[in-house]
Amino acid sequence: MSEASSSSAAAPPPAPAPALDPEAIALMADEAPPEEMTLVLKWSGKEYTVRAMGDDTLLELKRRISELTDVLPKRQRLLYPKIMLNDDSVLLSSIPFKRNLKITMIGTVEEEIYVDQPDDPEVVDDHELFKSEVTAIKDNEVYKKKLKRRASQYKFKLLNPCREGKRLLVLDIDYTLFDHKSPAENPMELMRPYLHEFLTRAYAEYDIMIWSATSMKWVQLKMEQLGVLSNPNYKITALMDHLAMITVQSDKYYANKIFDCKPLGIIWAKFPEFYNEKNTIMFDDLRRNFVMNPQNGLVIRPFNKASKNRSRDKELVHLTQYLLAIAELEDFSKLDHDAWESFMENAKRRRHR
């Protein structure tokens, strides 16, 4: 009877797998395939094709799924035959996906996309990134290796050739050039004031790349809708999307804060004869996107509530003057872009002496 009772008793649940530390992730990442992965997701009666990289984590995959479905990563439950997909830090290259099997997702759409929720615990508050922590992240060998692999894997959408002797300006889209949340009948109503004038004047000294944390389809569509790709007064060198970003972790002060960032090293590795840390500047409304290259980032004031702020927003007018003023300098990396307005004030005083 004791044998029967013991055999009928429920088996204890398996112990959860231990979390992977960054060194373990780096070790597995060395085995990641150099090509993109294509996975098929089933959700709500539809199938979606998801592109990812072999050294992406499961969390990064969830973020790409969120772009397609609007289901927040924290609301996603991914199911795959005989495999537990519950460790967000695991690398996709370590999961034995098979071509004839599909991932099934259980999840509910919420009204707000996760990247815009200020209280989302998955998103790091930019003001919480102390300088010492930024240094710890950008100097981490794990992330340097990941950047190197991503640089070898990523495929740029090159629209025009790089120009010898030009500096490089890298621009975000949402809230930098475009208010992507306000309602409008025409996308032009959400365009940041003076955008075309800004790009025209910048183009005289800078090659221009657009880098957004969205898919390439939406990057190209937004730029087409705003007339950026067809303007005769300037040319865009390249478009970049979320697949060029890498995931890092802020763990010195704020444990378990995982977020994507935009490492400019991917561009420098692809075009070393044209661009480097001395001649590149990037505008973005999110400071965390600069974490791998803080000396090259300028935090632009976000453009939102377009109908209210359109008539008084002159951020691009002032930043045009700054770009042209520093274009004469040999090394951008020695500048404090947080103090760009003070730089312009001092330059103005010197001109009036």
TrEMBL record:
Biased composition annotated in UniProt, kind: Low complexity: 1-10
GO cellular component, as recorded: nucleus
Domain (FCP1 homology) ranges: 162-326
Ubiquitin-like domain span: 37-91
Listed cofactors: Mg(2+)
GO molecular function: metal ion binding; protein serine/threonine phosphatase activity
Membrane-spanning residues: none
One GO term of the biological process aspect: regulation of proteasome assembly
Main enzyme class: hydrolase
Disordered: region residues: 1-20
Enzyme Commission number(s) from the entry: 3.1.3.16
Main location: nucleus
Domain of life of the source: Eukaryota
InterPro entries: FCP1_dom, HAD-like_sf, HAD-SF_hydro_IIID, HAD_sf, Ubiquitin-like_dom, Ubiquitin-like_domsf, UBLCP1
Reactions the enzyme catalyzes: O-phospho-L-seryl-[protein] + H2O = L-seryl-[protein] + phosphate; O-phospho-L-threonyl-[protein] + H2O = L-threonyl-[protein] + phosphate
Keywords: Hydrolase, Magnesium, Metal-binding, Nucleus, Protein phosphatase
Location of the protein in the cell: Nucleus
NCBIfam families, A to Z: HAD_IIID1
Name used for this protein in its record: protein-serine/threonine phosphatase
Organismal lineage: Eukaryota, Viridiplantae, Streptophyta, Embryophyta, Tracheophyta
